[in-house]
Amino acid sequence: MASVSTSQPDARGGEYRVTVRVPATSANLGPGYDCFGLAMARYDEVTAHIIEGPSQVRVRGVGARTVPLDDRHLVLRAAARVFARSGESAPALALECVNRIPHGGGQGSSAAATVAGMMLARALGGPAAQALTDDDILALATEMEGHPDNVAPAIFGGLTVSWTPVERAVKTIRAQVHPTIELVVFSAQTHSSTKAARNMLPMNISHRDAAANSAATAVLLHALTVDPSYLMDGTVDLLHQSYRSSAMPASANLVARLRSAGVAAVISGAGPSVLALSTGALDLAPWDGVQGFTSDRLGVDAAGAIVKAATTGDEAGPAYSASSAIDPGKNDTP
Ligand SMILES: Nc1ncnc2c1ncn2[C@@H]1O[C@H](COP(=O)(O)OP(=O)(O)OP(=O)(O)O)[C@@H](O)[C@H]1O
Ligand SMILES: N[C@@H](CCO)C(=O)O
């Protein structure tokens, strides 16, 4: 569940800073296209405070050399949405971003940045912004992303199943992941734009495929929460992976090889990362050094976005420091 703790701005003039930590997320999980999402223990952190304009952005880690450092920055654009929705004028912000989630990798980087900007704006804004609920943020972030499956787990943590009732606001169920399930993420050295990957999907699919995908999605929820022995059957997808495989052949190949070895592997989000779901520690030895990928065991993040606020001069200071251990050069990829 997204959690917030705030302190009041210091009457003596200390600087009021808000820090948000948002998890990476893997969407789809096979058949749950635009619906299933899982929060993973890999995090971006953004610290912000209000300044006299214009806004300033500093980035360490992923994207340091590629993201725009002005009002086009995704965190600032997301924050602006919250102020606009609240009827408040957007203040200029100073942002310090520490990024670990690869961009265009299928690990929910844009959802994390969007949720970070919205959570920061809620914490720094006036009464109307502060009155926004997590569900309001979910709706606004879904509007920006175009689909809810990454933003929901980024906000709430854990496994989420999201849908939008006709003419109504997006809804999310949060489910408990079975404790024996372990995640391995194979991060690709290449990138894929989610927008481009969405354009590869057909307008229509056969009734037979739709029926099989519906069944697999129901099995997936059972496998992820009750009986992981059904993970292989529950991760069969007929909506997106095959249609996108020509844009990410190495990822499609890795998924096929893992599945042949009995590992429930899927394309993570819109790719090209690959997510393996296993019960018990997956032996990585046969997969270490698969060309073009680096593998990491990641826990499931149960907390979702966490926001903390502090005034400079407070003994505690912000909970997450922008100088936390990270090699800014290592992940500096677009
Ligand atoms: N932390 C960030 N700061 C600024 N911009 C970001 C940040 N994270 C992502 N972006 C923007 O979003 C783009 C990637 O979004 P995209 O939706 O294509 O991929 P993704 O979110 O990494 O993957 P997926 O949606 O499949 O999980 C980046 O190229 C960049 O423009
Ligand atoms: N459901 C989205 C997830 C993107 O992370 C897609 O596959 O396009």
Automatic annotation (TrEMBL):
Its main location: cytoplasm. It is an enzyme of class 2 (transferase). It is found in: Cytoplasm. It catalyses: L-homoserine + ATP = O-phospho-L-homoserine + ADP + H(+). It comes from the Bacteria. Its EC number is 2.7.1.39. GO terms for molecular function: ATP binding; homoserine kinase activity. Pathway: Amino-acid biosynthesis; L-threonine biosynthesis; L-threonine from L-aspartate: step 4/5. InterPro entries: GHMP_kinase_C_dom, GHMP_kinase_C_sf, GHMP_kinase_N_dom, Homoserine_kinase, Ribosomal_Su5_D2-typ_SF, Ribsml_uS5_D2-typ_fold_subgr. SUPFAM superfamilies: GHMP Kinase, C-terminal domain, Ribosomal protein S5 domain 2-like. GO terms for biological process: threonine biosynthetic process. GO terms for cellular component: cytoplasm. Residues 314-334 are annotated as: Disordered. Residues 74-158 form the GHMP kinase N-terminal domain. The keyword Transmembrane does not apply. Residues 238-278 form the GHMP kinase C-terminal domain. HAMAP family: Homoser_kinase. Belongs to the GHMP kinase family. Homoserine kinase subfamily. This is Homoserine kinase. It comes from Nakamurella antarctica.
